[in-house]
Amino acid sequence: MKAHDALYIDGAWRPAESRDVIEVVNPADEQVIGRVPAGGALDVDTAVRAARAALPGWAAIPPAERAARLTALRDALVARKDEIAETVTAELGSPLAFSQAVHAAVPIAVAGSYAELAATHAFEEKVGNSTVLHEPVGVVGAITPWNYPLHQIVAKVAPALAAGCTIVLKPAEDTPLTAQLFAGAVHEAGLPAGVFNLVTGLGPVAGQALAEHPGVDLVSFTGSTAVGRQIGAVAGAAVKKVALELGGKSANVILPGADLAKAVNVGVANVMSNSGQTCSAWTRMLVHRDQYAEAVELARTAAARYADRIGPLVSAKQQARVRGYIEKGVAEGARLVAGGPDSPRAHGYFVSPTVFADVTPEMTIAQEEIFGPVLSILRYEDEEDALRIANGTVYGLAGAVWAADEAEAVAFARRMETGQVDINGGRFNPLAPFGGYKQSGVGRELGAHGLAEYLQTKSLQF
Questions:
Q1: Which of 118, 308, 429, 456 is a plausible cystine mate for 162, CB 3.0–4.6 Å?
Q2: Over the stretch 401-442, which tens digit does the pLDDT of each residue have?
Q3: Is 62 helix (H, G, I), strand (E, B) or coil?
């Protein structure tokens, strides 16, 4: 049991105004493993005031010194990497090996990348007779999701710090223990008081108070498109900048002539990763009609290998949501070839790796984000039909293209309405911009493009 009774505000651990708490449940066995304070509007106000007071001093620090503090933060995370992995496994349900390789290692790499960017980025440039300044946007309200609890924190906090902003973080209520660990690393790294502040709490209470607070200059939110719309409306009323990383329904397009077995196996692995709780997962596999039957059989076999390898979903609510989508797929006429809605275990929020065939583009499971280990396989007639299906949702976050000829894959990817496309299994790049078209969001994370979200521009004419 990890019981935290304080919020991290203005460089110190402080009790919340309310005695209300949030219980953290291990989704693998449904046991309570921790408690954190349920911060409210008064706590958010205290944290924002601390961030505003710290802003002038932190913004004035030379970028090289901010880089040194970010390096210290990365080192503090490295020292905690085993505890981070164990904590994520406990509160999210991720298998420990995946927590070590992804949930702990990737955010450490991202923190290191922003330490380098803070030291090398051109915060000033000459444009004709002007000097263009790239200055911190101000106080950032960061609201993060539960599916990648540390990565999403670092992907917001690290660029904000590099830019010279100060931050108030409201993490997801399902996975707040990782955020508490992160706050400890921040304290050890020696950031000035008020530069980073942590308020754990419920989204409709603490999250809404943070988004609405007049002292917040930028709201950076990752989560559902529905909540993103609400935050966008609040920010728009206040003419406040937003960065929104929202839902996805990404297409994995396998063109004729591609290595079908590799494309299907990698595609299934992508969907099952993190128990399907990944916004950029390739949840729609598009296969030419001549190879469709073979692809379905390959996917069925591949999915069976994950039956005992994936963890649970994060909560009973999420489990019910995913099972509901599976039942909807069956009801609408999709053919279930692996998995199904029944829970495979007596305890824990598990859902079986599930594969649907004979899915048509208008079906609910082909249009809406499920956020679980569920793959829909769709057939197409020709390349134009594949493009129509790939672009035929309100989302545009990620995707993949497989082809025998790389140039053919690139040509197809250029026509996809999505923010990121992997070509023939291209590797994740923590420096490449990540973000969506259409209702998948506004703005970008990671690398120099992620840093730019936390900067505003001023020109001086001479």
A1: 118
A2: 999 999 999 999 999 999 999 999 999 999 999 999 999 999
A3: coil
